[in-house]
Design goal:
The complex is a heterotrimer of chains A (137), B (646) and C (310). Chain A is mainly α. Chain A has six helices and three strands, in the order H-E-H-H-E-E-H-H-H. Chain A folds into two domains: 15-78, Arc Repressor Mutant, subunit A; 87-126. Helices cover 55% and strands 7% of the residues of chain A. In chain A, strands 1-3-2 form a three-stranded antiparallel beta sheet. In chain A, a hairpin with a 3-residue loop joins strand 2 (68-71) and strand 3 (75-78). Chain A is globular and about 55 Å long. The model of chain A has no long low-confidence stretch (mean pLDDT 86). In chain B, 42% of the residues lie in helices and 19% in strands. Chain B contains 14 helices and 24 strands. Classes of the chains: A mainly alpha (137), B alpha+beta (646), C alpha/beta (310). At the B-C interface, helix 1, helix 3 and strand 24 of B face strand 1, strand 2, helix 2, helix 3 and strand 10 of C. Strand 24 of chain B pairs parallel with strand 10 of chain C, so a sheet runs across the interface.
């Protein structure tokens, strides 16, 4: 099934952020593979019925973050994954969320193994492709 | 342009057709009502209808075309397009003229065609008769333009919105009443149009906003509104004056004249306010028997100014020939004998028409009757029709229409012209035989039918005496009473000549002069009314007529100064520009109350707020305070403002 | 070519003694989709009509496509499309009559676009404009205006009275205009979800005073909401600068604040709450908080609950 963007106005999250999050999620779950085309700014704007500048802004941030790339004369495509953050930076981004999960789980009365089980269930549900399943450090 | 014209035509076609039906019905009514005295096209009914129908049609179309655009958002839809508003207006006008023509011309042309075709009406048709109707048609165009102006200008209250109608009403009435020829009337109406139309154009162009229009048309608009206001103020002032006069009548005025009692005595008639007759003889002694109308013989009064068609005074002559004058076209001189006879003034012919077949029978000229197959013979000079006879400058004659014969009673020369319309007068009691009196400059002729009884010299003439009263009393004596009547312009004079039944003069008496008549208007009220309308007009009128009334001058000056002062105060309060302030103040020195009301009606009066710097009240329309030149302060910030211009 | 499609400087309008627009100044960049928001009667229509030269300003000035709004030339008017409040038309004309009427004025008429919009709103060419439904009239107005391909499209509450399908088509029409670079849209609306979709700039008229003029994202970043919960009954919010709205509900207090600064965070923590959590805010929520009565007030629901009214 081809990838479809959707947006929900009035949800509290700005539209451009919704677009960014959807694309990021799709790339992360493998829904969008590197090299897959993305609709042009105008096409996406007219499909979603939003201001093209909003789409342009989303695409702009995605491009800056290296998630997508523009190939001149051909359009927009999912970029090859490359880390633009250092490991330290990535850890710095992830750790607060891990802390929050752990604290909340403990204060709710869950045991460590239960928390780990939840995490594994969630990851399994994401159906990640093989390279994303296991990485040796 | 075409698109707008077509839109206008389609949009208003229904209204034009309704107006067409209404005008047609009115004209049909006028034709049907017929006319005894004057042919249909110039009859009284037709004049009234024409005077109302065309203005109403014009006004209605003008109003409709503009008012419809003010409904809902229609205005924005109409004017927001790549087409200037002036051109939109002109397109509307082109369509409007066509609609006006549709509503008015078919019935008018139909009526003209009807009466011009022989066999339809038993009356003459002359092309000149079309002229007054044409003038009324043109007048309707002025009302059309007024409708446009009334609808297009911004007005805060409905009274001021309608004021230009006053201007147009005045112009129309003057064009009617003044003795003008057709072209003069057309020019007069065109001048009115020249005031109203440009004002309407710029009012439309500016969306009604007065201050956005050029100075010239602002002046024209002010003129039209101001005239209407002056008219309204004048009417109100006159009504007020009348009310004051009625509540508080001024001195009982005396109306005095001489009348002739049934036994030939001149009686001084001292008439009070309510029609009582109190008699006194020449020496002032009361005459007891002279209290009822029956005690007096009926008098026929003949003016001595001269034939209407021969007046040396321009105004009088024009009055005879003016566009809307009833005598200027044709009027009936005899009817009831199964033939209607008319005098056609422009041609100076007398024509007869059969009442049944409505066809032209023939004419009576100086040489007698000519049948319809012959060309009618015109009289060499204009005629006036008297009670029984006809008169021109050099002849008096009688026409027997039954026998179709002309009988000349009198022929004279231009050195001794006929000066009055021939009159008839009763003898003794009413109903007995009737004699006629013909007057030339030198002589009075008394005729019985076609027979001259006697003649007497005319002892006095105009301007020493205004009129000659003639009567015959029971014992056969004739009384000739020269008098100036009750005119207050000429000195009071009365001269009595008595003659016996054969015309020999018995005596001549100069009657004692009657006492002057006090003015019955209160000077205060009259001066107040006039100065309310306009100090300027009051002063001008007083100077022109040379009747100086110091009270009126003073009141005019007071009104003028008060108005100018109030105007100046208004101009300061509303922060009008220097030149505007000055012009209005000077203008209202002369224009008075109507001027002040006009200012209030046309100019926008802005709101006031308190100046944050000097604390005084300042207008909201200017960037800088008119007192301290400080700008406005921005609205107070509440700390929640978010401004970022990218 | 000036940068801005519309530039407004101190525009003011009084009706009698009442001020409808108080010294508004803002700028509509060329190529933007600019939404003017405000409550009913706040002066939006007045502003729009002044910009188009249909209403004389009391004071101030504005430039539209480089020309003084008081004196728009016919040529410039030809580049501006205007849909007035209520989508006024000439009622007695049929759809095809209106097309040929409008067409005769604009050289750059796009008949196919007209037809496309007409079809989309389901209009019969023979129908009389006065007999159309609200939505159909809106569609016709839109078609008449769009077919002239205006550089600046001005619309006063175009979605008023429209059903959801018609509103959707209206949105499509607005996106259509953005296909042409440099073509600007200036509109007023109450449908804030649609404004969120399509506008990139927003201005807010708060009771005749313009208090916001910024890109939508800037506005959203500068209006934020926090939820605080307390051990006991929630206290009143006190004097926090930029407070737009405060809702108390038992032990929780919800504050919506404009232009928050580090000072704001300190003030919040001084209230002594157990927890402070920032909440996401849709554009609609932000605007409603902005335009509601300033300060602390109960909602209708809270007020009727406490008073015992069911």
């Amino acid at each position: 099934m081809p990838f479809e963007l959707t947006i929900l106005p009035g949800s509290g999250s700005p539209i451009f952020r919704q677009i960014i999050d959807q694309v990021r999620l799709a790339v992360a779950t493998g829904r969008l593979a590197p090299g897959d085309p993305l609709p042009s700014v105008r096409a996406a704007a007219e499909r979603l019925l939003v201001n093209p500048n909003t789409v342009a802004k989303a695409y702009g941030e995605l491009t800056r973050d290296g998630v997508i790339e523009s190939q001149p004369g051909r359009g927009l495509f999912v970029a090859q994954p490359r880390q633009i953050y250092t490991k330290a930076e990535r850890l710095r981004r992830l750790m607060p969320l891990a802390d929050a999960l752990v604290h909340e789980g403990v204060s709710l009365g869950f045991a460590s193994n239960e928390i780990l089980e939840f995490l594994e269930q969630r990851l399994a549900r994401m159906n990640l492709p093989e390279p994303a399943r296991r990485k040796t450090p | 342009m075409r698109a707008i014209i077509i839109k206008e035509l389609r949009e208003n076609l229904l209204w034009a057709v309704l107006l067409l039906i209404a005008v047609s019905a009115a004209m049909a009514f006028a034709v049907h009502a017929g006319a005894r005295r004057r042919p249909v096209l110039v009859s009284e009914t037709m004049e009234m209808i024409s005077a109302v129908a065309f203005p109403v049609a014009g006004l209605a179309i003008g109003l409709l075309q503009i008012l419809q655009e003010h409904r809902g958002g229609r205005w924005a839809f109409l004017v927001h397009r790549p087409f200037s508003r002036r051109r939109i207006f002109m397109a509307k006008v082109i369509a409007g003229l066509a609609l006006y023509g549709l509503a008015t011309m078919p019935p008018l042309l139909a009526v003209i065609g009807w009466v011009a075709t022989p066999g339809h009406v038993a009356a003459p048709f002359d092309i000149h008769m079309v002229l007054p109707r044409l003038a009324d048609l043109l007048g309707g165009l002025l009302w059309y333009a007024t409708g446009l102006l009334v609808a297009a200008r911004q007005a805060r209250w409905i009274g001021s919105r309608l004021m230009p109608l006053g201007f147009t009403l005045l112009v129309t009435v003057f064009a009617w009443v003044l003795p003008l020829s057709f072209w003069e009337a057309a020019l007069f109406l065109a001048a009115g149009f020249g005031v109203i139309f440009p004002a309407a154009l710029t009012a439309f162009d500016a969306g009604g906003v007065f201050e956005r229009q050029p100075a010239l048309t602002r002046f024209l608009q002010g003129l039209s509104v101001g005239t209407g206001i002056a008219l309204a103020v004048g009417v109100a002032a006159a009504m007020l004056a009348g009310a004051i006069d009625w509540i508080h009548p001024t001195d009982d005025w005396q109306y005095q004249s001489y009348r002739i009692s049934s036994d030939g005595q001149p009686v001084k008639d001292i008439d009070g306010r309510y029609g009582q007759i109190r008699g006194a003889d020449v020496n002032g002694r009361p005459v007891v028997k002279a209290e009822r109308e029956d005690d007096y013989i009926s008098i026929t009064s003949v003016p001595l100014q001269g034939l209407p068609t021969e007046q040396s005074d321009w105004a009088e002559r024009r009055r005879a020939e003016g566009l809307h004058n009833d005598m200027a076209y044709a009027y009936s001189v005899e009817f009831g004998t199964s033939a209607a006879w008319y005098y056609v003034a422009p041609r100076r012919t007398i024509k007869g028409f059969d009442e049944v077949s409505r066809r032209f029978i023939g004419s009576v000229g100086p040489n007698g009757f000519a049948p319809s197959t012959e060309e009618p013979q015109p009289f060499p000079e204009p005629l006036v029709s008297g009670m029984r006879d006809f008169a021109s400058r050099t002849s008096v004659f009688h026409i027997d229409f039954k026998r179709r014969e002309i009988q000349f009673l009198l022929r004279t020369t231009s050195n001794d012209p006929v000066i009055a319309v021939p009159v008839t007068f009763n003898t003794g009691k009413r109903g007995e035989r009737v004699l006629s009196a013909l007057l030339t400059r030198s002589t009075i002729y008394i005729f019985d039918g076609a027979t001259e009884l006697f003649r007497l010299p005319l002892e006095h003439s105009f301007p020493q005496y205004q009129a000659l009263e003639i009567a015959q009393i029971r014992d056969g004596r004739f009384i000739f009473h020269y008098t100036n009547g009750t005119s207050t312009d000429l000195p009071q004079r009365d001269w009595l000549v008595e003659a016996d039944a054969d015309g020999h003069i018995i005596r001549r008496v100069e009657l004692p002069p009657l006492t002057g008549f006090p003015r019955h208007d209160s000077p205060w009220v009259e001066a107040g009314v006039k100065s309310a309308i306009s100090p300027f007009l009051l002063v001008l009128g007083t100077v022109l007529t040379e009747k100086y009334n110091y009270l009126a001058f003073i009141m005019a000056a007071v009104m003028g100064i008060v108005s100018a002062a109030f105007t100046f105060w208004l101009s300061r309060r509303y922060a009008m520009g220097r030149s505007a302030s000055l012009l209005w103040t000077i203008f209202n020195l002369f224009a008075g109350i109507p001027g002040v009301l006009t200012l209030l009606s046309v100019r926008q009066l802005p709101a006031h707020v308190v100046c944050p710097h000097c604390g005084k009240r300042r207008v909201v329309t200017r960037d800088l305070c008119e007192h301290c030149a400080a700008p406005f302060s921005m609205p107070t910030l509440e700390g929640i403002e978010i401004f970022e211009m990218v | 070519m000036s940068e801005a499609a519309i530039e407004v400087r101190g525009l003011t309008r009084f009706f009698g003694g009442k001020c409808a627009v108080d010294q508004a100044s803002f700028c509509v960049p060329r190529g933007s989709v600019f939404a003017l928001l405000g409550r009913n009667g706040s002066g939006k229509s007045t502003m729009t009509r002044m910009l188009l030269g249909l209403l004389e300003p009391t004071r101030g000035s504005a430039t539209v496509l480089g020309e003084d709004c008081r004196n728009l030339s016919p040529a410039t008017r030809g580049r501006i499309g205007y849909v007035a409040e209520g989508h006024p038309l000439i009622g007695w004309m049929r759809v095809r009559d209106l097309e040929s009427f409008q067409r005769s004025f604009y050289r750059q008429w796009d008949g196919r676009l007209f037809q496309a919009v007409i079809d989309h709103f389901g209009l019969d060419r023979k129908a009389k404009a006065g007999n159309l439904s609200r939505g159909q009239r809106a569609g016709l107005s839109l078609a008449l205006v769009l077919a002239a391909r205006p550089e600046l499209l001005v619309m006063d509450d175009p979605s008023m009275g429209l059903d959801p399908v018609a509103r959707r088509t209206l949105l499509e029409a607005m996106i259509l205009v953005t296909r042409d670079a440099g073509h600007t849209i200036f509109f007023t609306s109450h449908v804030l979800d649609d404004v969120e979709r399509v506008a990139d700039h927003v201005a807010i008229l708060d009771r005749s005073v313009l208090r916001v003029s910024a890109p939508v994202e800037v506005f959203r970043q500068r209006v934020r909401r926090w939820a605080l919960n307390f051990a006991g009954p929630a206290p009143s919010a006190g004097d926090i600068p930029g407070l737009l709205e405060a809702r108390r509900d038992g032990q929780s207090l919800r504050l919506t604040i404009a232009n928050p600064s580090p000072q704001t965070e300190r003030s919040l923590s001084e209230l002594g709450a157990l927890g402070i959590e920032e909440q996401p805010l849709s554009l609609e929520d932000a605007v409603v908080a902005y335009l509601g009565d300033r300060g602390q007030r109960q909602s209708l629901l809270q007020q009727t609950q406490e008073a015992g009214v069911l």
